[in-house]
Amino acid sequence: MDLSKYPLLKILLPYVAGILVAYYGQFPKSVFWIFLVTVVVLWLVALLLLRVKRYKWQWLKSVVMLLAFGFAGVSATMFRLSPRGPASQEGALRDSSGFVVRVVDHPVPRAKSVKVVAELWQSDRGVPLRGKVLLYVQGTGPQATSLQYGDILAVSTTLSEFDPPANPDAFDTRRYMQRKGIFYTGFVPASGWKLLGHRSPNPFKSLSHSMQQQLASRYATAGMSGAELAIAQAILLGDDDTMEPELRASYAAAGVSHILCVSGMHVGVIFMILNFLLKPLELFPATRHLKALLLMLAFWFYAHITGLSPSVTRAATMFSFVTVGGVLRRNTNVFHSLAASLFVLLALRPMLMFEVGFQLSYLAVFGIVLLQPRIAGIYTCKTKVANYFWQLLSVSVAAQIATFPVSAHYFGIFPNYFLISNLSVIALSFVVIVTGVGLLAVSFLPTVAGLISFLLTWEIRIMNAIVAFVEGLPGAVTRDIDISGSQVLLLYFCIILLYCLIQYRKRVLFWGLLSSLTLLSGTFALRRVAIERREEMVVYQIRKVCALEFCRRGECLLFSDSIRDAGSTHYGYSIQNHARKLHAHWTFVPIDTVCYETSFLAKRGPFIQFGDKCYYLLKRKERVLPAEYRPHVDVLLLQHNPVMQPEEVASALDFAAVTADETNTPFYKERWRAYCEAHGIPFEAM
To answer: Which of 19, 264, 376, 526, by CA, is between 20 and 30 Å from 229?
Structure first.
C-alpha cells in the first residue's frame, strides 16, 4: 500500500497521537489554554508558509502542519476531559443539597432505581452550573419510570465524584464516565425530586427514541415474544436491554456477539435495499443528487433510531463519503473513505478513540480491506457457492486477525470455533436482517406480518440453536488470556510487518518481523518470571461479601464467606480481571474453615500466617481484638474494610499499638504448633 496516495493520513495520524498524549498524559487543566494558543499560532504560521513557493521550505510546512494537528488533538481531548463550568462550580456542588437539572439521555430502569444522565442548570442557591451528572432515582413504580428524555427536575441529592477502583485491575468507572463528560454522581430518594417542566435538548433524538419504541412494538404485535423478540430488537433496532445475560454470554462464547449490535452490515443492507429501489433516479442527471440525499437521510435516520453506536456511526459516515463520491463521479477508495470517516468522528468526539466498540469496528474493517484480498487469493474456488463461502471465511479470518489483540486485551477470551459460527450465523443473520426489515415494511398488513413474523422467529431459533451447539463443543473458548497494552502494540506491529513482507518480499522486513516476534516472546517470558516471584495479600472491597486473597508463586487462595468458585457473580465482577493477570491456580476456601494449611499459608481459627506476618481476622460482631492476642498479631483484617496495620488498629479500636513480629516461621504443621507454643497463643481452645 502506497501511503502517498492517502494524504489524509498525514493529518489523521498526528491528530490521533495528540488525543493519546492528552489522555494518558493527564495534564493539569491550567495548561489547556497554552495548548490552545499553540494551535492558533501554528495555524497562523502554516498559513504564512503556504504563501512561500520555494521548494526548500516544503519540509517546514509539513512539520508545522503535523504539529498543528497534533496540538489540536491534545486541545480537543483536554476540553472533553475537563469539567466545564464557572470557577465557583466546585464550591457550589460541595455546599448544595439541591439542584435543577435536565434529563439529556433516555432513563434506564434498574432493579431498584432508574439511571438518569442529566445536565446541571443551577444549585438550590441560584448558582449557575454546567456539566453532566449521573443520578440514580430510587423506586421502580409508575412515578420513577415516568421520567423521560428532556424532563426538567428539581432534585434533592448530594453530588460527589466517582470513586476510583476499589479492587486491583478493576474497571475504572471514574475514567469511563469522564470520557463521556460525566464527572459527578448522586442518589435521589423516591420523594427527593419534582418535575418542573419538559424541554427536549434534541427533538430529533426524542423522535428517534419514540420511533425505536414504536418499531419494537410492531414486532411484538406481529406475534414475536421471548428470546426471539429480544434478539430481533437487538439485531435490528439496537435495543438489547431485554436480552438475558446467559444468551448474551452464549453468543460471546461462539464468537458472534458482534451480530447483536447494529453495525456496518445493517447499514449496508439498508443501503443495498434503498439503492436498488431508487435505481430509477439515476436515469436523469437532475435526480442523482436527490437519490444521494435520500440515501444519506435514510441510513443516518436508521443510525439515530438504533442509538448511534460507534460501529453504525462509522458505517453511516463511510457510506456518506461513498455516496457523495458517487455523485461527484469520483473514484471512491474504501481505505480513504475509512480514514476520512475516522477523522471526522474523532474531530467531533475525540473520546470515541477509547470506546471498545469503536476500536473493534474500525480495526475489523481495516483488517478486511487490507488482509481479506490476500487471504482470499490463497485459493481459487471453481463454483459460485464454494467461492461465496470461501469469501465469507476469508473475511472472518481477516477480521479476527485485526481485532484479536484488542479483544483479548479487554475481554481475555478467544472463541476457538469462530470459523464454524461465522460461516453459519453471520450468513443467517443477513437473512434475519432482510426478513426483519420486510416485517416492518408490511406491519400494517396483519396477515402478511404474521406469516413473516413466524418465519423470522424460526430463523432466530435456528441461529440460537447453532450458537448453543458451538458453545457446547469441547474447548469452545480459551479463557484468561492476558495481553498488556505494550504487547498489543507489538502484536499489531508484527501484523503490519507480516503484511508488508507478503506485499513487498524484502529481506529487511523478514528480519524486522523475526526481531519483533523475539521481543514479544521476551515480554511474555519476563511477565511470567515476575508472576512466579510475586507474593501478595489482597482484601477485596465487595458489598456484603468478605474475600481475602493470598498469592505466592502462581498459587492463590481465596478465603470468602460467599464466593465458592469462579462462576460466582461477585468473582466475575470484582476479582476475575485481576485473577486473569496473575496467571495463577486458584483455590476457593470458606472463610469459616477452622484449619487449613498449604506450603505457604496456615490458618487456625481467626489466625492466618502468611509470609513473615500473622494476620487476625476480626469478625463482624467483634469490636476489639482480645488483649492476649495483641502482642502476636502483625496485621488486623476487618471484614468488608481495608487491611489495617497495627498502628492504625490502635487508633481505630482504642488499644495500644502492637509490635511487628519479624520471626520467619515455617508453615508445616509441627512448626506451626511450635510457633504457637513459643508465643503463648491458645489455639487449642478454638
So the answer is: 264
How does DSSP assign 221-234, residue by residue? HTT--HHHHHHHHH
- How many Cα atoms occupy the beta-carbon half-sphere of 199 within 13 Å? 8
Sheet (strand 595-597) strand order: 595-597, 601-604, 607-610, 613-618, 635-638, 643-644
Nearest to 133 by CA among 158, 109, 112: 158
Res. 641 pLDDT band, cuts 50 70 90: very low
Measured CA to CA, the distance from residue 334 to residue 331 in angstroms comes to: 10
Residues 6+ away with beta carbon under 8 Å from 294: 274, 278, 281
At 407-445, the pLDDT tens digits run: 888 888 888 888 777 777 777 877 888 888 788 778 777
Phi-psi region of 24 (alpha: psi -120 to 50; beta: other; left: phi over 0): alpha
Rounded-to-integer distance, Cα 349 and Cα 143, Å: 34
Helix (H) or strand (E) holding 91: helix 89-95
Burial 489-514 (b: 16+ CB within 10 A, else e): ebbeebbebbbbbeeeeeeebeebbe
Cell numbers at 648, concatenated: 492504625
pLDDT, tens digit, 9 for 90 and up, residues 196-249: 888 877 777 777 777 777 777 877 777 777 777 888 877 777 766 666 767 777
Q: What is the DSSP letter of 681?
A: -
| Position 332 pLDDT exceeds 70 | no
Q: Specify the pTM.
A: 0.77
Compute the average pLDDT of residues 313-333.
71
Owner of C-alpha cell 416492518: 440
